[in-house]
Structures are given as C-alpha cells and as structure tokens.
Amino acid sequence: MGIKEMFSLARVPSILVLGVVYVAYVLIGGGVFWKVEGDLGQKDISVLLLNKKRLLTTYTCLNQDGLEAVAQVVHDASKVGLSLRGNYTTDGFWKFTSSAVFAATVVTTIGYGNISPSSTTGQIFCVFFAVFGIPLNMVVLNRVGKYMLVIERNVSDFLEGKTRRKCTRFFVHLVSYLSGAALFFIVPMIVFQQHEGWTYSQAIYYCFITLSTIGFGDYVADNNPDKEYPEWYSVLMASWIFFGLAWLALLINHSIDILERLNAHFKLQWGGQKPEDESGNAEGNNPNTQMEEEDEIKKPPITQ
C-alpha cells in the first residue's frame, strides 16, 4: 500500500495535521535556540561574574551593598533615557517625537519594552488608548494594504494587456516584493547602521523584529542617550513602521494564500478527491464557502 492510499484511508483531519506541524515547528525552533544561545548564555554569565569580582577587587571601598546601589542607579537611568557618561544631561525618553513613536508602538502592538508610562494617569490612559487605537490601526493597515494590492493588480493587468503574456503578473509580483524588501529592509538597514552604529546583521534583524511586531526590545532605534539624533529621524522612523507594516501584512497574506493552495494541491494528489475540512465536508459544501457565496451580490438572470 502506497502513501497515497494510506492518506486516502486515514482521512486525517486537516486541523490535526496542521496542529502537529505547528507544535513540531515550535519545538524545533526552541531546540535550535537552546543549542545556539544556551552555551553562549552560560559564557556571558561567567564573564559577568568575573567582571563583578574584578570590580570589587579594584574598588575596595565598594562592597556588595554599594555595588547593588550603583546597579540600581544605572538601571533607573536607562529606564528614563539618561546617560551617565560625562557631565551633561539629556531630555530623556519623553520628548514629543519619542512619545509619538511610543504611541505608534502601542497601537501597532510592537511594544519594545524599553519605555513605558510610570504614572497612574499615564498607565490608565495607555490602556484606553490601546483599546481604541489597536482596532483603528488594524483597519487602517488593512485598507492601505488593499490599496497597495489594487495598484499592483492594475499594473499587472495593464502590462498583460500590452504584452499579452500570462507570466506578466508573476513578474509584477516579484518586482513589487523585491522593491518592498529594498525600501523597507535594505534602505533602513543602511540608515540604522549609520546612525545607530549597529552591524548590518543587527540592523536587518531589528527591521524584521519591528515590522513583524515581535518587538523584543534588545535593539531600539532612536533610543541611545549618548547619541544626538536629527529631528527628522523620529518622523522617518514612524513613517517606516506604518508603511512597512502594511507591506509586510500584504506579503504575509500572499504567503498564507500560497500555503492554502499548496494544502489543497497535496490533498488532491494524496487523497484523490476534493479537499475536505475536518467535518468531512467537501470543498464545494464548505460552510465558509457557502457564507462567502451568500455574501456576494447575486446577478439578475439573463433572459434570452
């Protein structure tokens, strides 16, 4: 009995297969991070303990309590965006431009974690601001993404009408993907490398972590109190986040569509029948498909 016949007899629900693949993917990722970062983390701890011992040996007047007090001062200064180098002071995190970028990270759910409101009034306002801002952000990004998709389809239809080639749409999609990658990843990578002093790998890592709304907070642009940033830097960063999120959402939707088409293709190849959902409904009897068909505007019958 071949693999095709086994899948045809098993009739495994697609949601179960998808769940197994999802859990396996997460576990494999966790294992890779554990092996790659685990040993390095132990080495970092050993280096930190050695530096602590060397610091206490060098400054004999500093005991454990004094070291903890200094560490607390450094931690508090980093939380408010103050630099302890030199004798000059800065405005901290809560300037107007950085506050606007913080508001953008709230509604986009990036949430770096490097800056957060500390007052009760600010925390309460942040809750209500996010409650109304997150749905508004999703609606706006969805609309902008649809406009980008419409422009892309119009360009491909125009070129197909001129060239009369079926592969034109594929090349239009490819050019849009490459131009978006250059505009939202390559160009910001160069800008961040110049203004933040990061390596190119760190800059491209920050770009993806930001636009995917993961937002670890280990690298944050416009956040170093020891650097002087130009006035346009925060505005450019906020614009990059907004349009980059719209483009990445469009790209993710295309990827989901490709995965669904591959899923349907493998069902046809292995099962020898129309794709079925977990309830055993064929593709033509899918309740979701029926709902979509009912939502469409019915055309009047054509009389001969």
How would you characterize the overall build of this protein?
- This protein has 304 residues and is mainly α.
- It has a domain at 93-266: Helix Hairpins.
- The protein has nine helices and no strands.
- Helix 5 packs across helix 8 (232-271) and helix 6 (168-196) packs across helix 7.
Question: Can I get a quick summary?
Answer:
This protein has 304 residues and is mainly α. It contains nine helices and no strands. The chain crosses the membrane at residues 12-34, 92-112, 124-141, 170-191, 203-220, 232-252.
Give the fraction of residues assigned to helices: over 70%
Backbone structural class = mainly alpha
N-to-C series of helices and strands:
HHHHHHHHH
Largest sheet, strands/sense/barrel: none
The tally of strands reads 0
Rounded mean pLDDT score: 76
- What's the CATH topology label of the domain at 93-266? Helix Hairpins
Query: Segments where pLDDT lies below 50 for 5+ residues?
Result: 275-304
Strand content: under 5%
What is the name of the CATH architecture of the domain at 93-266?
Answer: Orthogonal Bundle
Distance between the termini: 54 Å
Question: Which of globular, elongated, flat, extended, rod-shaped describes the shape?
Answer: globular
Main CATH class of the domain at 93-266 = Mainly Alpha
Cα gyration radius (Å): 27 Å
Individual helix count: 9
Domain Potassium channel: 90-148, 174-260
Keywords: Ion channel, Ion transport, Membrane, Potassium, Transmembrane, Transmembrane helix, Transport
Transmembrane segments: 12-34, 92-112, 124-141, 170-191, 203-220, 232-252
Membrane topology: Multi-pass membrane protein
